[in-house]
Specification:
Shape: elongated
Helix content: 25-40%
Structural class: alpha/beta
Order of helices and strands: EHEHEEEHEHEHEEEEHHHEE
Number of strands: 13
Strand content: 15-25%
Largest sheet: 5 strands, parallel
Strand order of the largest sheet: 2-1-3-6-7
Radius of gyration: 18 Å
């Protein structure tokens, strides 16, 4: 069954071109030019039912005629049914802070305009791979004191309470937790995640790490689980004093 995508962008010409390109690649694509139209599409597709999230991924423009795409991003991440929906944010704004805010609100990736449809396709495929269930011989759970990372259920818990991580953030935590004590560079992390190559100035991984820390650390400003090794990358501590 082909993956279903919802593209929300008010540029009709761009949406038509991108929609045709993604359909030719085997996706089912629906297009909306406003937040209101996107809401109607989501309702018609079944996003209001717990059994079916309606779409497999969302491509969302940051600036829309009837509101800010960030508002929709915030809304989706607040809803249990759409909390883990893979979300790629499109932005024509050049300010890095706009991208950082989007990632902090729960976007999994971003792509600045103008872009090549081929790159959009590659990024969407990467998001869907990360969100796909991992088939293992057993439901493995990594335990680190009060923190447990359940690979089968794809959820991290502190004291038994689920942490509100996106699919991408969960995969990032798994990469680190499966190599405790080993320093991983950003390139090594992205290679393991099988994601797209990151430009030298792309700091999105740092934003995701900050979000992970906010959810699993007792004090995100003084992390004891996910540590930064200046000039080298990140390391998941073998022992956490907080536990």
């Amino acid at each position: 069954m082909p993956s279903r995508l919802l593209l929300i962008d008010d540029d009709a010409r761009l949406s038509a071109m991108v929609g045709d390109y993604l359909r030719a690649a085997g996706f089912e694509v629906e297009v909306a030019g406003t937040l209101a139209a996107a809401g109607r599409r989501r309702a018609a597709s079944g996003t209001s039912t717990p059994q079916d999230p309606g779409y497999d991924a969302l491509v969302l423009d940051l600036m829309l005629p009837d509101g800010d795409g960030l508002d929709l991003c915030r809304e989706l991440r607040a809803e249990p049914r759409t909390r883990h929906l893979p979300l790629l944010m499109l932005t024509a704004r050049g300010e890095p802070m706009d991208r950082i805010v989007g990632l902090e609100l729960g976007a999994d990736d971003y792509l600045p305009k103008p872009f090549e449809p081929r790159e959009l396709l590659a990024r969407v495929k990467a998001l869907l791979r990360r969100a796909a269930p991992v088939v293992t011989g057993a439901d493995e759970v990594l335990r680190f004191g009060r923190l447990e990372v359940d690979l089968g259920a794809r959820v991290a818990r502190i004291d038994g309470r689920p942490c509100d991580l996106t699919s991408h953030q969960f995969e990032l935590l798994v990469v680190l937790a499966q190599s405790p004590g080993r320093v991983l560079s950003r390139d090594q992390i992205m290679d393991t995640l099988k994601g797209h190559p990151m430009e030298a100035f792309d700091r999105s991984i740092d934003v995701h790490i900050s979000r992970i820390r906010a959810l699993i650390e007792d004090d995100p400003k003084e992390p004891r689980r996910v540590l930064t090794v200046r000039g080298a990358g990140y390391v998941f501590a073998k022992k956490q004093d907080a536990d």
